[in-house]
Amino acid sequence: MIPPxxxxxxxxxxINDPVGLHRLGDRWVLHDQRSAGPADRAIGWxxxxxxxxxxxxxxxxxxxxxxxxxxxxxxxxxxxDAPRAFFTLHQPS
Length: 93
Prior knowledge:
Blueprint: E1 15-24, E2 27-35, E3 43-50, E4 57-63, E5 70-77, E6 84-90
Antiparallel strand pairs: 1-2, 2-3, 3-4, 5-6
């Protein structure tokens, strides 16, 4: 598979909704809803960073699913002290 030229992809995982893009210092930070692994249906939030919105570095899972449930859609609010995440928690059982 040839990766897109101007699109972030997560290695070995599928990505669903983007849930937040904000500036942190000299980098852009993108959060996205994604699977926890290649064959995993559990969903959490991934994170990628970029200096220019063209070249992305995947940072892995920022909010992984855990025993409390899966992390679904939400948003990130960039505040002066630190960004805050608001999301829907889904309990598969």
